[in-house]
Design a protein that fits this description.
This protein is α/β, with parallel strands linked by helices. The protein folds into 2 domains: about 40 residues, GTP cyclohydrolase I, N-terminal domain (GTP Cyclohydrolase I, Chain A, domain 1, Orthogonal Bundle), CATH 1.10.286.10; about 130 residues, 2-Layer Sandwich (GTP Cyclohydrolase I, domain 2). The chain is built from 7 helices and 8 strands, in the order βααββββαβαβαβαα. Helix 1 crosses helix 2 and helix 3 packs antiparallel against helix 4. The longest helix has 16 residues. It is elongated and about 65 Å long. The structure holds guanosine-5'-triphosphate and zinc ion. Guanosine-5'-triphosphate (GTP) binds next to helix 4 and helix 5. Zinc ion binds next to loops.
């Protein structure tokens, strides 16, 4: 894997604790009431005209509706509260690592409204309770389905789990390819961006951090 450590969070993969300061709290998302399909359809007609197309030709007549449906799907996370999934918990004394790796996602780069896709690895150290494994993937899915930057998406997933599960530690690693970098602009297909958010014991204990990173990067993946 060619890894471009672009904008890698400073609380990431090296052992220098002085380099582990947080970059500050994640930006809260701004929930809108709901996706306004009619407004999107009007906007798509405007764009089609602006690029020199005829929005009334047969092949394009349904395009504004399709794009409105697509945005409703891609931005559905704006209208959901992912924290609700983490309220499904089971009391357990297990207090070692829980790691769900390779959770596939597609999000939308908020700069270009082009998709970025990849995998998220989400782990935590339980503190008296565990949540359903699928709930971690549901959180990734809903946080991704918003206009995003990868760094904020990574932070938001970690913050939600830390807050809702009262864990001893959280680790989130996201690897993604940004189509705004691969199909346009600088045109570097295959370049991967890696971001990480570490909380609790994953931040303070170098050995624990090294162990989870070795599991995430294990050769059999
Ligand atoms: N940090 C960060 N940058 C992103 C993300 N997604 C896209 N970008 C970058 O956002 C930047 C926007 O830069 P601008 O100069 O404003 O826009 P642009 O002229 O389209 O830039 P180019 O992509 O370089 O052509 C680009 O460098 C993108 O690669 C992300 O998740 N995180
Ligand atoms: Zn972009």
């Amino acid at each position: 894997m060619a890894t471009t450590l672009s904008n890698q969070s400073s609380d990431s993969l090296n052992g220098d604790e002085n380099a582990c300061a947080s970059e500050g709290p994640a930006q809260p998302s701004q929930p809108a009431a709901e996706v306004d399909r009619e407004a999107i359809k009007d906007a798509v007609r405007t764009i089609l005209k602006a690029v020199g197309e005829d929005p009334d030709r047969a092949g394009l007549v349904e395009t504004p509706r399709r794009v409105a449906d697509m945005y409703a799907e891609m931005f559905s996370g704006l209208h959901k509260q992912p924290s609700r999934h983490l309220q499904v918990v089971f009391p357990e004394t297990y207090d070692e690592l829980v790691l769900v790796s390779d959770i596939r996602f597609t999000s939308m780069c908020e700069h270009h409204l082009l998709p970025f896709s990849g995998v998220a690895h989400v782990g935590y150290m339980p503190n008296g309770k565990v949540t359903g494994l699928s709930k971690l993937a549901r959180v990734v899915e809903e946080v991704a389905r918003r206009p995003q930057v990868q760094e904020r998406m990574t932070q938001q997933i970690a913050d939600l789990i830390e807050k809702e599960l009262n864990t001893n530690g959280v680790v989130v690693v996201v690897e993604a390819e940004h189509s705004c970098m691969s199909i346009r602009g600088v045109k570097k297909p295959g370049s991967m961006t890696l971001t990480s958010a570490l909380r609790g014991v994953f931040k303070t204990c170098q050995a624990t951090r090294a162990e989870v990173m070795s599991l995430i990067n294990r050769p059999s993946r």
